[in-house]
Amino acid sequence: MSNYFEFDKKGTNLKTEVLGGATTFLTMAYVLFVIPGVLSQVGMPKESVFAATAIASAVGTFIIGALAKFPMVLAPGMGLNAFFAFGVCMGMGVPWQNAISATLLSGIIFLIISVTGIRELVIKAIPNDMKHAVSAGIGLFIAFVGLKNAGIVVADPSTFVALGNLSDKSVLLALFGLAVISILMVKGVNIAIFLGIVITVIAGMLIGVVDVPTAVVSMPPSMAPTFGVAITHLKDVFNPQMLLVVFTFLFMDFFDTAGTLVAVGSKVGLIKEDGSVENGSKALLADSVATCIGAIFGTTNTTSCMESLSGIGLGAKTGFSSVIASGLFLLSLFFSPLLSVVTSQITAPALIIVGSLLCMSFAEIDWSKSEVAIPAFLTIILMPLTYSVGEGIAFGLLAYVVLMTCKGERKNIHPVMHGLSILFLIYFMI
Questions:
Q1: Which InterPro entries does UniProt cross-reference here (predicted)?
Q2: What is the pTM (predicted TM-score) of this model?
Q3: Angstrom distance (rounded) from CA 415 to CA 406
Q4: What phi and psi values does residue 160 have, to the nearest 5 degrees?
Q5: pLDDT tens figures, 164-188
Q6: How far is it, in rounded angstroms, from Cα 332 to Cα 325?
Q7: Inter-residue contact 318 to 127 (CB < 8 Å)
Q8: How far apart are the first and last CA of the chain?
Q9: Dist. CA 244–CA 377, nearest whole Å
């Protein structure tokens, strides 16, 4: 094992890798409760989603650790999860059964482009400024969803939105959770979100907002309600509306993974001289396989997670740390009774915090150029205001092509972008 993962060459040891893997798992453990909590709002059985999330995370993390030898954790992405629930199911009125089929199709496409090399073409086609705009827009979208779920922001017939009732116990609990997680992050606590959720749950029990669980450990929940649904409803995905959803899933998943690979790879010396990532194709393969498996079991797109840096910060440098985290994800299957205490007020602070982290991409956009600033702004602002990540992407990329063409920069627009703009026009006209 030491030779396979090259402990000596990487300057690490078994104890460090185990500790790093366990830390990364604890940093990411909140997704096991937040993902089911969000998806249950669109009718998906919380226990089945919990199991599917644990399995998808375990499989993807094991593959990227054992095959790509990358010290990284894979799990269903918060941005993708929020778009699935609030953008597709609630915003577009798509049944979750069809949406999970779209997830599977995006995973299959991602698998194909991961083994054929098409991914390089796709990466080059989308301008970097627009990639950052999408990330920032998703951040605002997730934060808005969190504020709404917490009751901090409510609907208003006159102004569309307004400040909620801050004297309500549930709202106060969400604000408490937001404060706790924020303080822990400022203090540099690696497991801030997970620990913040635990503290908020305890506080909720003390004030009578959260019920005390009747059990902590049980046998893994049944996955029958969601298992295989993505396959049986695959035929319902082939229409313009759902194909845009598939494209959005693919877009978000693809660039989330690519960006995280570069960020993590640079920390552990896995970036080659030509700028490529060592074993990058295998890492992308792990992501796509995990997405397919997760969709079949019943959860949203699985992607690489920046929280992996928490374990790396403690010295983890090899894929063995990921193998440890994978085993802990499987072990978590026996803790599904804890789902009963994770309400929307408990998960809302996590959504708000994750949204704020994604908004760091604002700084990467070149706001000095109108042909960039206007499409980027439209992408960002339309995601929360239309309650649709997909429509924000479509409107922004279409605006980019139009403005670049008007400026006489048509030659600098990748042909793939022209093709996408035509598809977006058709979508808006239907």
A1: Azg-like, Azg-like_bact_archaea, NCS2
A2: 0.77
A3: 16
A4: 70, -50
A5: 999 999 999 999 999 999 999 999 8
A6: 11
A7: no
A8: 56
A9: 21
